Input
Amino acid sequence: MSSYTKTKTYTQSFTKTRISVLDDHFEMFLRCANMSDAEVERLLNAVEKHEIEAVGVYLQEGEYRIAEVEFNVNWEKHQTLLQLNGDLFDTDIGGWKDGVAPEAYIPVQHLVKASKALDLPVRSWIRVSSAIRKNPTKHKSVCNELGYCFGGGVPPWKSNPNEKTRNIQGLAEANVVSREINI
Output
């Protein structure tokens, strides 16, 4: 008696430009934070132009921060990786969903869940890139375009937060930092 096994394999490549992959990560982060479409579009435009290097979302109780998640990118490392590896990036990486690593959205989902449980709004901040910070006029212009207060800040922490940095597998220039006090 003979038998045979029929096996089909599908190989699919998900190649994008490296900046598109960063955009996808920023977008997932921002959308999970429930930012409006207009806010997301403005911030993604700034990412494309390398004008911002970080976006943070946080919870504030009274006058103090109690939780925060930050998504950041090191643009110098990004340029180095482009020179070493080229502009194309394959997002077919284990654990990634729709071209985005879970590190980019799971922590912000937890923050939004906490905001609902505590009945606190999710607030945000940006950090413009170092190249923009060198020019105060440009720095102010970018802040105004994005709807953030030039020279503004975020409230202090209620107490020293616990901090956890998550490197994004395969995307060495980006990471997510979670900070929280015991809430």
